[in-house]
Each structure stands twice: as structure tokens, then as C-alpha cells.
UniProtKB/TrEMBL annotation:
This is Aldehyde dehydrogenase. The active site is at residues 224, 261. Belongs to the aldehyde dehydrogenase family. Residues 9-451 form the Aldehyde dehydrogenase domain. GO terms for molecular function: aldehyde dehydrogenase (NAD+) activity. Coiled coil: none annotated. It comes from the Eukaryota. The chain crosses the membrane at residues 498-517. The keyword Transcription regulation does not apply. The keyword ATP-binding does not apply. Pfam families: Aldedh. InterPro entries: Ald_DH/histidinol_DH (IPR016161), Ald_DH_C (IPR016163), Ald_DH_CS_GLU (IPR029510), Ald_DH_N (IPR016162), Aldehyde_DH_dom (IPR015590), Aldehyde_DH_NAD(P) (IPR012394).
Length: 520
């Protein structure tokens, strides 16, 4: 599997090649080529073509590396990226336009605007679990913002890495977009270089290493990390509701065999719903993957033997804890990189399976007494990348939203927010920083540069003498400056905003009818 498969022809980049890539990328950016909006659009269209024309090769590469089902690869590695590129091209003209902030008294007569400028040369380090998607989405935004880019795929998916190294220079500008292959040694070498922006997707542990390397040059960083994304079940739901909950949870928990950063990691559930929930998730597993999931073509494999062993041992340690019940699954085989979809009940907060992100097809269910206990449970841990709430009660949902912080939230489903191009995707705290997707990704790869352009004329020269800008200072000048700069607090409205809006609308309709009548 994965990095042990020599058929990929995987070849690491040499230090000399890395040096040349970085130098060429910087030279190209300095030439101004990547800033041209025509160049950006052309590159995005070429990127779309690259994915579309080679989707079969992309699917095959992922299949070789960890037996991901064709359907899942077509959705997550191909279609979602084509949509993201199309969305970016549709709105790029509006995104690149300057913003025009509100001007104060001191800026009157001047031009004030904010330019969206590229950072320069960007490094994109991607993990193995979505080997194309987590390179191509950031790359789309980096190109859209006018940057040059160097991409580092994971060595754990060698077929995918080599395919990217082959396709990128064939479709994209070979002097502006690059692929560097290798393992820890090559990644370390890349992080020693000076970059204008770094994006890293992966574990929190490595994210800290990336941050430390970036600090040497004070380089801005977007981190898409992970953590334990919780599911909170409302006790007012019924056993019958658990059929839908179980399907929606299982559908994304076991997608990509649980190897998704925003997969539901554990469930906080009231005691009376634990059995119905576990039963319905188990029923979903059987309906999706059959009585023996190890034979199902629709279940991906774990990336390699070491990860299989890690997850399997976690299951064994947890099952050895008194009170833990294997509701279904619990089987693993290191030789075939297989871990069965597993549902565990009777799990406590301090259990082995709760010690870190599972990143595999294991769903522990922890009993909690109510919403306050669930909130405290989540708050006692690092801020998660995602939070999933299942409830029909708006006050229950609102209380959790108000008190629990996370990268993103989905109510009555899971994971879907990660596929929305028009909304930001990112973490907070230990689960990451910065945002990707759509305009938010474009903004993450853009420096928002304020420009104040004052005229050199008689009026502006006279304004220089107002407000005590230049010494010698005096009490009169100080009073004058305060008068120009100090703004009173806005008065609170005595009327609700909705009432004001309705009043304005009714007034408009009245005058419209009145004007029409007079015209008659």
C-alpha cells in the first residue's frame, strides 16, 4: 500500500532541483507575469482542463495508493475541484477590484482604496488523505490571487504525487507553478527557504513545526489541521429520529474510511438514545458495505500498515477498558490495511480512544446527561475543526453555538460544509488558522494594501495647516485637531431595526402609489 508500492516510480526532488524551483518561481513573480488577470484566468482554465482530461488517471492513482472507491474519488478529488475552479473564474473579476473604505474628514479630497495584491511565492504542503483536492483547492486560490506556487504532495501517496509532477508542467506555466516531491527530508529543506506565504494541511504536531519554520521569516501561514470533531445529540430526539441521524453520521464517518479531518470523531449522546443510535449506525454500515465490509469495493483502505496498526491498537486498548461495548466491528488486519467500521459504546472521556484524533473508521459514543454536560465536555478539550449538532430545538442549537467554538458547524448532518465554495473553511486554535475556499481563499492569498492618494494642489495645501498637524503646537491647534478627529458615539435607536425597515418600505409604497395616482 501507499509508500511501500515501488510501481509508482516515485522520485524525490534533489536539493539542487529545489533551489532551482524556488529561484525560478521568485524570478517569474518579480517579472509581474502572475499578476496579469489574463494569465490568472488562463492558468485556472488550464487547471480545469488538467483535472477534467485526466480524471481517469487521477482516480486510478488514488486507487493504487489506498484503494479509495472510484465514486468517492470522482466526488472529492475531481468534481469538487472542477466546481471550485469554475466558481473562482465566475467571480474573479469582482474579487480583484479595489475596495473603497469610508473616508473621514482628514481624507476628504483624497483617493482612498484597498488593492488586492498577491503575496509572491507560495508553498503548499498537502497530506495524503485527499491527495489531489488538498493541493488543487489552495493552488486555485493562490493562482487566482496572482501568486507563483510550489506544491509538495505527500510521499505516502506516491502514485498521486508522481501524477501531479507529470501533469502540472504539461498544463500550467512551468516557470510559475511547480511540484516538489519527497519525504520529511525534502519538506524540511523546503521549510528552510524563504516563502511569501505557506499553506499546510495535516496534523497539529507538524503544523507547529511549520509555524516555527515560518516564524524565521515572519511568513504568513494558513494551517488546516484537525482534532476531535464532536457530535452532540439532543435528548429530545426520538429513537425513530436515530435512523436518519445514524445514516447521516455513518455516511461521512466512513467516507474515505474515516480518514477525513472533519469526520465526526466521537458522539456525545443522552443515555436513552445510545442503543438506538449505535443500532442505526450499525444498520447503515451493513446496508452500505454488506455483512463483511472487508470485501466491499465501496470502503477505502487505511493508507498503510503503520496507520492500520495504530488504529487497531487503539480499538484493542479501548475494548480492554471495563464497560466498553463493541456495538459492531472491532476487526482489523494489518496485512491488508483493513479496519472494520467500528461503533463503540460505554466509552468514557478519559478512554484510550479519546486521547487524540482517531482518523479512521471508529465511532465512540460517550454518554452525557444533557446539553450543559456536553458543552463542558467539548470546552475541556482543544477547539475542534468541526462541530455537529443533531436537534430540532432552536434553543438547544443556539446554546451550543453561543458557547462552543469550532472551525465550522453543521446542524443535523456532518461534513457537508467542507464542500461549499461560497463559504469559508478553516479551523481555530489547535485545529488551524486562516480560511480557504472561494473568495475567502482568494483573500487568504492576497495582501490587502491600503492606498491613500492625496493631491498636490492649493486646497490640500491649505488643509495641511488645519488641525495642528505640524509644530509648533498650541492649545488652539490641539482643540482644532480634536474637533476634526473625535467622533461622538452613535446614538442607540429607540426603535427596532425591523420596525424602521418596515416603516421605510411602507412610506416608499405610499409615495409610489401617490405618485402613480397623480400621474393618472
Amino acid at each position: 500500500m501507499g509508500n511501500s508500492d515501488e510501481s509508482s516510480g516515485f522520485k524525490a526532488s534533489t536539493p539542487q532541483e529545489v533551489d532551482k524551483v524556488v529561484a525560478t518561481a521568485r524570478k517569474t513573480f518579480r517579472s509581474g507575469r502572475t499578476k496579469d488577470i489574463i494569465w490568472r484566468k488562463d492558468q485556472l482554465r488550464q487547471l480545469y482542463r488538467m483535472i477534467d482530461e485526466n480524471h481517469a488517471e487521477i482516480v486510478d492513482a488514488v486507487l493504487h495508493d489506498f484503494s479509495k472507491p472510484r465514486h468517492e474519488s470522482m466526488l472529492s478529488e475531481v468534481a469538487m475541484n472542477l466546481n471550485h475552479i469554475a466558481y473562482t473564474l465566475k467571480y474573479l473579476d469582482s474579487w480583484v477590484k479595489p475596495d473603497y473604505p469610508e473616508k473621514g474628514l482628514t481624507e476628504m479630497g483624497s483617493d482612498l482604496y484597498v488593492r488586492k495584491e498577491p503575496f509572491g511565492v507560495c508553498l503548499i504542503i498537502a497530506p495524503w488523505n485527499y491527495p489531489f483536492d488538498l493541493i488543487l483547492k489552495p493552488l486555485t486560490s493562490a493562482i487566482a490571487a496572482g501568486n507563483a506556487a510550489v506544491c509538495k504532495p505527500s510521499e505516502l501517496t506516491p502514485h498521486c504525487a508522481m501524477l501531479l509532477a507529470d501533469l502540472v508542467p504539461r498544463y500550467l506555466d512551468p516557470e510559475a507553478v511547480f511540484v516538489v516531491n519527497g519525504g520529511v527530508k525534502e519538506t524540511t529543506l523546503l521549510l528552510e527557504k524563504r516563502w511569501d506565504h505557506i499553506t499546510y494541511t495535516g496534523s497539529t504536531t507538524v503544523g507547529k513545526i511549520v509555524m516555527a519554520a515560518a516564524s524565521k521569516f515572519v511568513t504568513p501561514v494558513v494551517l488546516e489541521l484537525g482534532g476531535k470533531s464532536p457530535v452532540i445529540i439532543d435528548g429530545s430526539l426520538t429513537a425513530a429520529d436515530m435512523a436518519t441521524v445514524g445514516k447521516r453520521l455513518g455516511g461521512f464517518k466512513f467516507f474515505n474510511d474515516g480518514q477525513t479531518c472533519i469526520a465526526p470523531d466521537y458522539v456525545l449522546c443522552p443515555p436513552h438514545l445510545v442503543a438506538p443510535l449505535a443500532d442505526n449506525v450499525s444498520k447503515y454500515v451493513e446496508s452500505a458495505y454488506g455483512a463483511d465490509p472487508s470485501t466491499s469495493p465501496d470502503l477505502a483502505k487505511i493508507i498503510n500498515k503503520s496507520h492500520t496498526r495504530r488504529i487497531g491498537r487503539l480499538i484493542d486498548k479501548q475494548v480492554a477498558v471495563s464497560g466498553t461495548v463493541v456495538a459492531s466491528g472491532g476487526v482489523w488486519d494489518e496485512k491488508t490495511s483493513y479496519v472494520s467500521p467500528t461503533i463503540l459504546t460505554g466509552v468514557r472521556g478519559d478512554g484510550p480512544i479519546m486521547s487524540g484524533e482517531i482518523f479512521g473508521p471508529v465511532l465512540p459514543i460517550v454518554e452525557v446527561d444533557g446539553v450543559d454536560s456536553a458543552i463542558d465536555f467539548v470546552l475541556d478539550r482543544e477547539r475542534p475543526l468541526a462541530l455537529y449538532i443533531f436537534s430540532k430545538d432552536k434553543s438547544f442549537i443556539g446554546k451550543i453555538l453561543d458557547q462552543v467554538t469550532s472551525g465550522g458547524v453543521v446542524v443535523n448532518d456532518s461534513v457537508l460544509h467542507g464542500a461549499i465554495d461560497s463559504a469559508p473553511f478553516g479551523g481555530i486554535g489547535a485545529s488551524g488558522q486562516g480560511m480557504l475556499h472561494g473568495k475567502y481563499g482568494f483573500d487568504s492569498y492576497s495582501h490587502h494594501r491600503t492606498v491613500l492618494h492625496r493631491p498636490l494642489n492649493w486646497v490640500s495645501t491649505k488643509m495641511d495647516d488645519l488641525g495642528g498637524r505640524f509644530p509648533p503646537y498650541s492649545d488652539q491647534a490641539t482643540d482644532q485637531a480634536i474637533g476634526m478627529l473625535k467622533k461622538p458615539l452613535p446614538r442607540p435607536s429607540r426603535f427596532p431595526q425591523w420596525l424602521i425597515s418596515i416603516s421605510v418600505a411602507v412610506t416608499g409604497v405610499f409615495f409610489g402609489i401617490f405618485g402613480y395616482a397623480r400621474g393618472k
